[in-house]
């Protein structure tokens, strides 16, 4: 393990512990919110494994902000929206998504649903800073649509995904897939402790303003 990797892991452990302590009210509040508005379902979203470093699958912790079996719910009850969802790279704005729980727009706008990822960092599945974690189906389908993205994707998957990162502070959902994967590949090549710190410093503004959130 090189010096960068050692420093990166130490920074991740320290950052995750500090994050859990500082944001413990939001972590507790987020869990209580899910159980209040949707008591019959789990606290964490039951989502498919995400793609980790070198394509290793891992369980991604995130507060549930949708009804149970959201994909089937949308497909069976809102076929036109489901079609739009698939055509729009599996995205719907919060204003038009019928799957969202009461209050989910606020929770997502301020990234409260993302807070449990500090535990992913402690486990070593993620870093504080890195590319946004992809779904396996997303990698496969989007690379079929955009073959030119394949070399960028291969570069991006050489590093751990992060809670925040270049894409996350550069527009998030406003950025298309190809530009996103180019940003992720750029970060993977350029990565350094100083670059990580710069991205971390940019993150509070993005979270507080909800810039680029769906």
UniProtKB/TrEMBL annotation:
Residue stretches spanning the membrane: 12-34
UniProt GO molecular function: phosphotransferase activity, for other substituted phosphate groups
Domain Bacterial sugar transferase: 8-208
Superkingdom of origin: Bacteria
Signal peptide: none
Keywords for the protein's UniProt record, in alphabetical order: Membrane, Transferase, Transmembrane, Transmembrane helix
Family: Belongs to the bacterial sugar transferase family.
PANTHER family assigned to the protein according to its UniProt record, in alphabetical order: COLANIC BIOSYNTHESIS UDP-GLUCOSE LIPID CARRIER TRANSFERASE, UNDECAPRENYL-PHOSPHATE N-ACETYLGALACTOSAMINYL 1-PHOSPHATE TRANSFERASE-RELATED
Official protein name in the record: Sugar transferase
Organism of this sequence: candidate division WWE3 bacterium
Higher taxonomy: Bacteria, Katanobacteria
């Amino acid at each position: 393990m090189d010096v960068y990797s050692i420093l990166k892991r130490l920074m991740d452990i320290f950052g995750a512990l500090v994050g859990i302590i500082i944001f413990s009210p939001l972590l507790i509040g987020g869990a209580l919110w899910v159980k209040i508005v949707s008591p019959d379902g789990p606290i964490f979203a039951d989502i498919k494994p995400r793609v980790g470093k070198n394509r290793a699958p891992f369980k991604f912790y995130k507060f549930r902000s949708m009804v149970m079996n959201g994909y089937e719910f949308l497909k069976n009850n809102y076929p036109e929206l489901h079609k739009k969802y698939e055509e729009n790279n599996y995205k719907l704005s919060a204003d038009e998504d019928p799957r969202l729980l009461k209050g989910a727009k606020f929770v997502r706008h301020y990234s409260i649903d993302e807070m449990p990822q500090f535990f992913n960092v402690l486990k070593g599945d993620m870093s504080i800073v890195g590319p946004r974690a992809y779904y396996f189906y997303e990698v496969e389908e989007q690379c079929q649509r955009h073959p030119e993205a394949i070399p960028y994707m291969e570069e991006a998957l050489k590093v751990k995904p992060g809670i925040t990162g270049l894409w996350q502070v550069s527009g998030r959902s406003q950025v298309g897939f190809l530009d996103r994967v180019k940003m992720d590949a750029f970060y993977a090549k350029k990565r350094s402790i100083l670059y990580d710190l710069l991205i971390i410093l940019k993150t509070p503004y993005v979270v507080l303003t909800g810039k680029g959130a769906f």
